[in-house]
Design goal:
By secondary structure, the chain is α/β, with parallel strands linked by helices. The protein contains nine helices and ten strands. Helix 8 links the parallel strand 9 and strand 10. Bound molecules: adenosine-5'-triphosphate (ATP) and fe (iii) ion.
């Protein structure tokens, strides 16, 4: 089975071709237009998708060494995401399905982030989690602990009640004057700083839920007060600020993950989403795993942020279940898992 998958939920246009569970190609066009605005501008994102989608799909087919008529089904991200962005990928996928007379498969972007763990590389054995496992899904728009029962059945056991972890990284980075997206830069600078240099507010929320808006405010007020005394405070303490911020976010994330894993008695633990690229989170998880005797799974870097390969693997399992949609399937910007 050959699947073509399209991802266009936010600011990356991506297309991928799979042969069963194996990735043959994964092509991505990043959008640089948003940098100067300090965040993704939805209207600019949809316009860039419109320009990128055809070349990105061509490249995915070419890299995979297949033609359009070799494709057996087309999968697309239906949501959640930015409506204008989703519409571009959805419309393209519909047109492709119609033109080639093949089935259309809708994919939930969050399920796709989780199922990225099952992507197989050509001629390579990769370990993947066994069901049921817990997945800490931490991205730009979401922070949740997901109980993954099988490919199709997932249950959110805890989630953020306000900002996502990625947003906390990005917004605090912005306050320090770092360009968007700040997460990867905070990670880089944190490597040279002391994680216990500064203390920031830790949230108190129920069960396995998260909250990051208080941390953001605490960070902002802390800097405002220090800047009054020393206008160069940020410049002089950038590495320590990044290290302290990162360690606070990582502690918050791992604390609830540990609680959920204990209560649900699960020892297979996976990370997913853009923030799983964070080295502090990866290290923290590994240390916790040794102590808790967990078996952990972290996706390959390319499959942590938005990509169509994760949409393709999800589409493949839906194909096996003959779970198709018609031409009237409309994208959704928000979703109840
Ligand atoms: P969603 O999947 O919830 O719709 P998204 O697709 O925009 O959101 P991703 O692409 O999965 O999110 O992740 C992007 C986020 O990951 C950004 O907030 C970015 O700052 C963050 N991020 C990426 N690399 C790192 C890193 N090394 N450290 C911290 N954060 C990072
Ligand atoms: Fe995403």
């Amino acid at each position: 089975i050959h699947i073509l998958a399209i991802e266009s939920s936010c600011d990356d246009t991506s297309a991928s071709v799979f042969k069963n569970e194996v990735v043959l190609s994964n092509s991505i066009a990043n959008q640089n237009v948003h940098r100067e605005y300090g965040g993704v501008v939805p209207e600019l994102a949809s316009r860039a998708h419109q320009q990128n989608i055809v070349p990105v799909v061509h490249k995915a087919l070419k890299d995979a060494g297949v033609n359009a008529d070799d494709i057996d089904a087309v999968a697309f991200t239906r949501g959640p995401g930015l409506m204008g962005s989703l519409l571009v990928g959805t419309s393209f996928a519909k047109g492709f399905a119609l033109a080639n007379n093949i089935p259309l498969i809708d994919v939930n972007h969050l399920h796709a982030h989780v199922l990225a763990h099952f992507i197989k590389e050509p001629d390579q054995e990769t370990a993947h989690p066994e069901f049921p496992f817990l997945c800490l899904l931490v991205s730009g728009g979401n922070s949740q602990i997901v109980l993954v029962k099988d490919y199709m059945h997932m249950q959110v056991v805890g989630q953020t009640i306000d900002d996502a972890a990625g947003e906390a990284f990005d917004k605090c980075a912005k306050v320090m004057g770092l360009p968007y997206p700040g997460g990867p830069l905070v990670d880089k600078l944190a490597k040279e700083g002391k994680p216990n240099a500064f203390e920031f507010a830790r949230p108190r929320v129920k069960d396995y839920d998260y909250s990051f808006s208080g941390l953001k405010t605490s960070f902002l007020y802390f800097l405002r007060d220090r800047l009054k005394e020393n206008p160069n405070f940020i410049e002089e303490n950038k590495n320590d600020l990044c290290a302290s911020l990162q360690s606070t976010i990582v502690d918050i994330l791992l604390d609830k993950l540990e609680k959920a894993a204990d209560d649900l008695n699960i020892s297979q633990i996976a990370l997913a989403g853009g923030v799983s690229a964070n080295s502090g989170l990866r290290d923290g998880l590994q240390k916790m795993a040794v102590r808790k005797k967990w078996i952990t799974f972290i996706p390959k870097f390319a499959y942590t942020t938005d990509n169509a390969a994760m949409v393709a693997i999800t589409g493949y399992y839906k194909f096996l279940a003959k779970d198709f949609v018609e031409q009237d399937a409309a994208p959704y910007s928000r979703v109840v898992f």
